[in-house]
Design brief:
about 35% helix, 2 domains, 8 strands, nucleotide binding, YajQ-like_sf, Alpha-Beta Plaits, alpha+beta, single chain, about 160 residues, four-stranded antiparallel sheet, UPF0234-like_C
Length: about 160
């Protein structure tokens, strides 16, 4: 009897994030209320996140809203943004570093695996590093697992890959 499987991963598409960056930068440059202010957007390190710049915390939040809007228009979950860092204000300028989340944490993987085991008796979730492989004899059951996992409140962007 054939078995089918798919992987649950938490990742982001670098090309799409580059598009988000370019669109957000263009909107910031064209906004009238940002003229003459340090409002802007920069890359962190090796394009692993954004650095938001503004005159104050309120302007950093406005830039963050623009980034979220651009993510939504490209159908990317805003859960990819790690908003845990605080705004740093100095020299009449405020900055906030927002790295991107990559990889499924062990806690999230365990939570998802437990939810799958509780709901679907024939599906077998296996944690493999920073991803989760789910196997079953039924494609229909795997699709039901995908729907169930999408409905969970997980603080990470989830993708389903390698459906075989």
């Amino acid at each position: 009897m054939p078995t089918f499987s798919f992987d649950i991963v938490s990742d982001y598409d670098k090309a799409e994030m580059n598009n988000v960056y370019m669109q957000a930068e263009k909107e910031i440059a064209g906004r009238y209320d940002f003229k003459g202010t340090p409002a802007g957007l920069e890359w962190l390190g090796d394009k692993t996140g954004f650095k938001l710049i503004g005159a104050g915390e309120w302007q950093v939040d406005a830039v963050l809203d623009i980034v979220r809007k651009k993510l939504a228009s490209r159908e990317i979950s805003s859960k990819v943004l790690d908003l845990s860092k605080e705004v740093v204000e100095s020299n009449l300028k405020a900055t906030k570093e927002i790295p991107f989340k990559k990889g499924l944490s062990q806690d999230n993987a365990k939570l998802i695996a437990k939810a799958i085991r509780d709901e679907f008796k024939k599906a077998k979730p296996v944690i493999q590093g920073d991803e989760l492989r789910v196997t079953s004899a039924s494609k229909d059951e795997l699709q039901a697992v995908m729907s169930h996992v999408r409905a969970l409140d997980i603080d990470a962007p989830l993708q389903f890959v390698n459906f075989r």
